[in-house]
Each structure stands twice: as C-alpha cells, then as structure tokens.
Amino acid sequence: MIPSHSFVLTISCADAPGIVAATTACLFERGGNILDAQQFNDLETGRFFMRVVFAVVDHAGGSIQDLRRGFDAVAAHFSMHWSLRSQADRRRVMILASRPDHCLNDLIYRWRTGELPMDICAIVSNYPRETYGLATIGDIPFHMLPVSRETRMQQEAGIWRLVQETGTDLVVLARYMQILSDGLAAKLFGRCINIHHSFLPGFKGARPYHQAHERGVKLIGATSHFVTAALDEGPIIEQDVERISHRDTPEDLVRKGRDIERRVLARAVHTYLDDRVILNGRKTIVFS
Amino acid sequence: MIPSHSFVLTISCADAPGIVAATTACLFERGGNILDAQQFNDLETGRFFMRVVFAVVDHAGGSIQDLRRGFDAVAAHFSMHWSLRSQADRRRVMILASRPDHCLNDLIYRWRTGELPMDICAIVSNYPRETYGLATIGDIPFHMLPVSRETRMQQEAGIWRLVQETGTDLVVLARYMQILSDGLAAKLFGRCINIHHSFLPGFKGARPYHQAHERGVKLIGATSHFVTAALDEGPIIEQDVERISHRDTPEDLVRKGRDIERRVLARAVHTYLDDRVILNGRKTIVFS
Amino acid sequence: MIPSHSFVLTISCADAPGIVAATTACLFERGGNILDAQQFNDLETGRFFMRVVFAVVDHAGGSIQDLRRGFDAVAAHFSMHWSLRSQADRRRVMILASRPDHCLNDLIYRWRTGELPMDICAIVSNYPRETYGLATIGDIPFHMLPVSRETRMQQEAGIWRLVQETGTDLVVLARYMQILSDGLAAKLFGRCINIHHSFLPGFKGARPYHQAHERGVKLIGATSHFVTAALDEGPIIEQDVERISHRDTPEDLVRKGRDIERRVLARAVHTYLDDRVILNGRKTIVFS
Amino acid sequence: MIPSHSFVLTISCADAPGIVAATTACLFERGGNILDAQQFNDLETGRFFMRVVFAVVDHAGGSIQDLRRGFDAVAAHFSMHWSLRSQADRRRVMILASRPDHCLNDLIYRWRTGELPMDICAIVSNYPRETYGLATIGDIPFHMLPVSRETRMQQEAGIWRLVQETGTDLVVLARYMQILSDGLAAKLFGRCINIHHSFLPGFKGARPYHQAHERGVKLIGATSHFVTAALDEGPIIEQDVERISHRDTPEDLVRKGRDIERRVLARAVHTYLDDRVILNGRKTIVFS
C-alpha cells in the first residue's frame, strides 16, 4: 500500500519542546504527507524517539538529498541522531551461519518471496557450502571462513573485510555458533543482530534447551538482540515462547525451538529493515 | 509516569497534507510537550487518525478551555472529529450486568485498585442486588431494572434516563444477557462496549461455548466490541484466545472462557478510558 | 529417546469396563513395556479412545505380526477400531500444492531435517515443476496434473491412481487451491489433511485474510483439518493465531498468515505421523 | 460430567513391566471404569507416573477404604508412591497473603463460583483483616500473624500450628511477601505452592518487574512452583507470559503482571486440586 516514493525518517534525541512541530513542518514544506508516525518520550532517560513514514506527493520538489539538506537545520538544532531512507532502497545484508541451517534457510526463503526487502550481499560460514546444499545458497555469494581458537582474529578480520567490500548495512547471526570478539562486536554495534535460543535472560550460554529441560520450565523461547561485547546481554529486539510439557525430551525442545528461533529472528530482521527499531541505551524502542 | 497536567488529544479526519504539522505547531505554541503520539493514515479510506499525549510544561498558559479554543481553528480547517481531555478527568461509566458476575466483579476490582481510572456512576441489572452480594457492589449506586419481552422498551427507557441523569460517558455490557434495541444501540453508538464470549466472527449468538465444543475447535476466545444495531457485528476493540483440548467439556469451556472474557473486556475498557480506540467505519484504530 | 523396537497402538471403541486392563495385560504378556499412554472416555458419545506407546523389551518374543495376532482377540471382544504400528515404519505421504509454495517448502524442509518422520512418495501440483525451483523438489517424484473445470474429474482420477500406485498413506493439501470432489474426499476420508488460512469457523471460503481485514479482527489464524465433502467443515486437528493491528494491510495479513499456516500444518502432520490424532465423529481426539 | 462416585488414583514409582496391567486389572475387578488416564515413563530417571480417573459403576461393591485395601498389594509390589481420592472430597487449603490482594481475591472468587473445588480453612496474613475489606474475606477464618526479623520463627511456628489444627492439605502463597525458613519449607514440601512474579529462571528475587523493565524484555511472565528451601528454585507447575512494549513503565508491568500472576496461580492450584501434578525430582509431571 506504500507509494513507491515514500521515505522513512527516524529520530532520537534529548527531549525538548517543539521537536515534532519542527520536524513535521519541515516535511510539510517539502511536500511530505505523513502515512504513519509514532513518537515516544522516555521520561526516565529524557530521550525522545520518532519514526515517520511519509510520501512526497509533489515530485517536482525533491530528491532525498534535498530532503536531507532541508532537514539538516532541524536535526542540528535538536542535535538529533537521525536517518532518512527511501523505502525503495534495500539494505545490504550479510548472513553468518554455522552447521544449523534452519534460520539461514528461513531468511533466504523470506527474501526470495519478497517478505524481507533486502539484498543478501554475502553468506559467510565456518562450514563448507555443501553443508547447505546448492538449493539454499543459489547464486548468493558464499564465503567459507573456517575458524579455530588460533585463527579467530584472522577469520574476524576476513569477515570485517567482507563487510567493508560488500558495503554491508546489517550482519545477521543466523545461529552462527561463534562468539564475536569485543572488537568486532564494537565495530558492528547497532547493525549486527543475533538469535539466542532461549527466552533471555533465562538460560544464557550453551545448550539452553538442555538447561530448560533440566529446570523443567513450561515454556521455551527465543530472543533476538543486537550483538554487544557482553554475551547474550545486547538490547533485545524481539522474543517469543511456546508451551512445552514433561513429555518433551531435550531433542523435542530443540525441534520446537527451531520454529521459534526462525520466527523471532525473521521478525527482528523485518523490524530492522523497516526502521522500526531504535536503540535506547541497553534497550530498544520498537515501533509497532 | 504521566505528569498530572497532561492531556490527550484524539483526531480523526480526511487525510490532507499538513495535519500533523498544524496540530503539533498549535500545541507547541501553547506550551505543550509531546509525551507519546501516534498517527495512522488509512490509505483505503483516506482517513487520518492521530492520538497525542502532551504535557503543558508551562502552567502560566493554559486551561483546557484555552487549549480547546486554541485548537478550534486547526480542527475546523481540517474538519476534524476530535476530543481533548485532561488525563486527570475520569470518565463516568455505567455497567450493565445479568446473572453471570465474573466480568462485573473484575471491572469493580480493577476500579478499586485504580487500574481502571473511571467513576462507576451506576450498576444496572435485571437481577436483584443480592445476586452479587454486598461485597461486590458496596456503595456503588445499584439499579434493578427487570425486563420481559413486554416491558423491554420501558426498561430501556429507564436505562436511557439513567444514562442522562448520571451523565454516563461509557456503558459497559458486562455479560448483560439482553439484546439492546436498535434505538438504544443507536443512541449509545461509540460509547457502549460489549463482551461476546466467542472469537468473532465465529460462533455468533447463543451458547457459543457449546457451539465451539460441538465444532471441536482447538482454541476458544472472547471479543470485545462496540455495540451496534447488528448483533455481534460491531467494531471489534480487543480479542484473545486460549488453547483447549478434547478433554474439555462445555462446562470446562465456560470456566476457561470466564478468564478470557474478563481479561478481554478489561483491556477494551482500559483502551477506551485511555483514548486509544478510534472508530474507523466498521472497524477500530487501536493505538498501542 | 524412543527405543528402535517401540510400537504405537491406537484404539477407538464403544466404552466398556475392562478395556485398559485387557489391552495392557495383552501387551504385558508379550513383553511390552508402556512408555507413554493416554486414555479418554467421551461421556457424551460413549466412545473410548486410547493411545499406547510401548517397547518390546524382550526381542525373543515378537514380531509385529505376533503382536497383531495376539491382540486380535482383545480387539474383537470390544469391537475396536485399532492400529498397531512400529515407530520405525514411516508413512508414505503425498503432497498436493498449487502456486503458493510456503507450506510445501516447509514440509520438505522439516522432512529433510528428520523432523517429520515420513517418506514423501509424490508431490502433485496443477503448476509446472519450475514454479518451485529445482531446489525445493530435488529428487522427490513430481507430477504436474493441470486442472480445469472440464478436466477436473480426470485430474482427480489421476491423483487417485497415484495414491494407489505409490501406496500413499496420507495426502497433505499444502495450500492446494482446488476443491476436492465429494467422491475423492470420501475415498481419502481420515487420511487427507488440509490447511485453511483462517481460524475456522470464521472466514470460510475464499480470501479469508481479506475478509479478516474487512471485519477488523485483532487476531488472525489458520486451521488444519481432515478433508470432508463439506468444505472447511472437516474435523479440526490444530489451530493457531497471531495478533494483528489496524496497521496491517491485507498483504501484511497474507505475509503473517504464511507463518501461521506452515506452523499449523506441520504440527497437524506431525500429530498424524505420531498417531496422536483419532477421529471422533465430526471432531478429533488429539493426545498431547 | 464426572459421576459423583468417581475417584482419582495417582502413582509414581520406578518403572517396571506390568504396572499398568496390574493397576487397571485391580480397578476392573473392583468395578472401576476408567474415564480418563495418562501414563508417562521418564526414560531419563526411570520413573513411571500414572493418573487414572475412574468411576465405580457398581455401588454394591466398594467404599474408598475397600479400594485402598484392594490396591495395597499392587502398590506394595511396585513400591509405589500413590494416592487415591474420591473426587467428591475437597482439599483443605490455607492461603497466605500480604498487602497485594489480587491473587487472594482471585482465589476466593474462583472458590465462591465453584471453579476451585476446595475448602478454604484459613487465610493468614501479616497484615490486618481491614487490608482486604469485609467483602473479600467474608466468613473465612482469618488470622493475622505479624512478622519481623526477630519474630519470624515464632510466626512460622504459628503458621505450622494452624496448618496442623486446620488439617490443611495445601498451603498457597498468594503473593505472600515473606520468605519461608528452610524448616517450614521442608515441612510443607510438595503441598505448598507459590506464585513468583517473573518468568523463572529469569529475574529471581525482588522487584522482578523493575528488573524486566531495566533489561528491556519484550514479554513478561509469572511462575507458579512448589516451595523449597532454595528460593525461586522449586519445581515449576505452571507459567505464562504476555507481550509488553517500550511504552510500558514498571508500573504498567506490575499492572499487567497482576493478570498473569492470578491466572497462573489459579491454574496451578486447579491442577493440584485435580491431582494432575506429580513431583519428579526438581521437576513436575503435569497431566493435561
């Protein structure tokens, strides 16, 4: 339903009177018509957040550069962190995977069906391409970057080089079974999404489904979050759970968990691609 | 977290460029600082919807009358349906009940705990006060208005008189087992909420849990909607479901359903009291 | 966790005292040790249902034939409908699909990962193989059986021939966009599962997501059921829902619905393959 | 639907061949007809669990004493932990509460409506009766047992005395804000249920909703578990969650949490009263 010449503007700044008025006036003057917008004022932190989807009804006016130039003054005045993107422009996404392929498969399927509006610029794995079968990868550039305790830093250097060469906007860890170094995590902060196979903060670290089985919980879940140096502590984007019973073995939980993981990761990536998630310290604002 | 001098403005009008800019500029000029706002543009119907919660940081300025006066010009220019309310002002709510008392009890409990910011100006039932026990009603004005096929119109006249005398803003049908006449439904349109004990549009009419059991569905639900002349067809505000199994008898469904009904009705009433629901033809906009 | 020499016995019969005693005594005498069992007595219909998973701890004893022979007397005495299957034996499954491929893809993926213990003996579509890409189908026998109003009966004859030739145990309609004739539906009764893209009984028939959008419901769902002559009226096996909002266009509902559909269909097929679903008139018993 | 002369038998013992056969044969010989039964064999621990609901169709025969006597031999042979209860006999339940009254209210309401088939033999609080209002308590014996760091042991002695005097079968901690000593926890093991206001194992200890807000989770939950010496570590009976957003303040979480808490606690108590929960080490078997 979104007209092709629509844009999305996201803003985060210290709260102050007149932000919305100044922003929307600026858009209005440039022929912008608001299709969907949400604002949120975090009274705890004093931060203000805004997402606006608008269509430029009069083309005569403006390219996105004009819009950007026009908004610069407003942004500067409120010292905003902001981004303006044409909804026609697709993000460049790199997917990192290991042996489990359900999230990788799912992301690729949703990309092929157009559900995830992105360009997959690279798939990187520490396993060979055959792990996934021709089918899955197709003609997406595939890079095997094996890793061992000794070679970890070189391997990460390789990943970083690829990120730069491919102009990657977003890195998705699709059940990538390696922990990123603090260095790489820092470089990718705010543009690297992981899926953890538990309902965080419960069951951090390894084999969460076995931990869940051991503890006898009645629901299992998955959590998608931004990657930070602190393992499994990054800002949470999306979570979901499903009911289990005493009849479920750890293997059953792993099987049921795959469904939750791929659903939660796909939602988180979709949220990101749609500019609905904005960082708020250790947390996220996710506009519905 | 909401400052005591905060207001909520809701708007619905035909879409046009500049609505948000004009509205927020108007609020800004009167010292309004936006705490939370959402806009939505229904591209199908061309209707625009907006909800703004704002605090008047500078008291010097304005009473709500000043704010209203100030906004009149903007509202007129875009021919808006709009409402401006101080969040300190409580709605006057009339609850209609019959023999089942779980929704009545639940609403009263949530009111006593302050969860539902409203004044209960009257409880009307076609059953005597004893049906509910002293406990429940306490000192809330209670009116027994018995009804039979013959006396239906007089009884409804009595309800309408009470609505006017008490200055009722919202009528809640808390499992009230009588069908309102088209006339009364029309008079109360947009300010009368019902809870139907099924996941509409499935199982309309009588004994929905028995219908659900008969059909063998695996989930049962409840639906809260605005009352219209067309039975069970009003705009839906909130719905929820729960999983059931072949072991559940119709009696089990009724029991489990009570939980869903009271939860769904309470959410719908809360949404209304918080000015989050706006009519959009046969449907509703519910801002999160 | 299930030992390789485990069996599953399912029973349905008129209730009578001693069924469980006689059944379990018979298994015990033949060295069967019960791993998991559930019984249910439908007091409405007077039907009794039982599912027993047991391991034959002493191999010396018995082949499945011996077990069957041994149980015949018990089964005859209570005039049971019953089935005894080695959990090592895989069902032969035929998948029918049309243009939408998300359910087909999902079933194949779950089969490849071993999540669905079945043999896919054929994929039948009224669209050419290219619709799905090499990837999806791989070396699974694919049959294109185009259909038009005129050729419908011949096409169904072709499907039936394939069912017989391949020894198909279960036919899965994976968003197959054709309505089976009463004749074929009757022939496949109890072994043909469909996924309907709505939370039945709401929104039967065509374009349910558009109906749901039109009605303004707050949750959408999907329903997997046995196919019967009466369209969308077959015994329900599994259902699930997800929350939506006024922001969701019909296209969004279709997208979100794909997730629910594939999840619900996969669960229903898994339930069937695990002998957890037993017909009870217009309804099903689904043992957890 | 359960005939009035129905009984429920629960069993837990080391697995061995013939348990179900011996048990059901014994019931059959005494005229027992099985209405609902479930068995589970925990292959990890080698423990076997069984729940049988049966009706004694022939009254002539037996009292529950006869049934017990009759079953003793079977139970002894397999060294079972077992219980046999007439479904007509109600458990005696003591509720412990503190200032928050939503769970207390909810349990009492469900008891008054007959949803929870129990006798409330005492309400114990460290707050005065007025905290709850006449309404709530009615004529249920109420005992105020104030507590301070110094008087804790005496207060617990008072609780224990009451448990014995009243013949309490089950103690329910309905948001009781005191931690039981190891001694009392041990004495009440297996018959004391607590509601913790988080989705354990996440957010143990104090102010879990504030912890959840701090962490920025997208779902909050509640957990009902048996009380053990290890705080918040007891075997889990039931859990549930609800979706929240960045808009929710800690106060909103507390409000939304109350709904989850009372729902989860009520389900756990209902499960217990219906003999559906059996301890399995640190975990529980909960038959559906």
From TrEMBL, chains A, B, C, D:
Catalyzes the hydrolysis of 10-formyltetrahydrofolate (formyl-FH4) to formate and tetrahydrofolate (FH4). Residues 8-88 form the ACT domain. It is an enzyme of class 3 (hydrolase). The lineage of its organism: Bacteria, Pseudomonadati, Pseudomonadota, Alphaproteobacteria, Acetobacterales. Keywords: Hydrolase, One-carbon metabolism, Purine biosynthesis. The active site is at D232. It catalyses: (6R)-10-formyltetrahydrofolate + H2O = (6S)-5,6,7,8-tetrahydrofolate + formate + H(+). Its EC number is 3.5.1.10. This is Formyltetrahydrofolate deformylase. PANTHER family: FORMYLTETRAHYDROFOLATE DEFORMYLASE (PTHR42706), FORMYLTETRAHYDROFOLATE DEFORMYLASE 2, MITOCHONDRIAL (PTHR42706:SF1). It comes from the Bacteria. GO terms for molecular function: formyltetrahydrofolate deformylase activity. One of its GO terms (biological process) is 'de novo' IMP biosynthetic process. Pfam families: Formyl_trans_N (PF00551). Belongs to the PurU family. Pathway: Purine metabolism; IMP biosynthesis via de novo pathway; formate from 10-formyl-5,6,7,8-tetrahydrofolate: step 1/1.
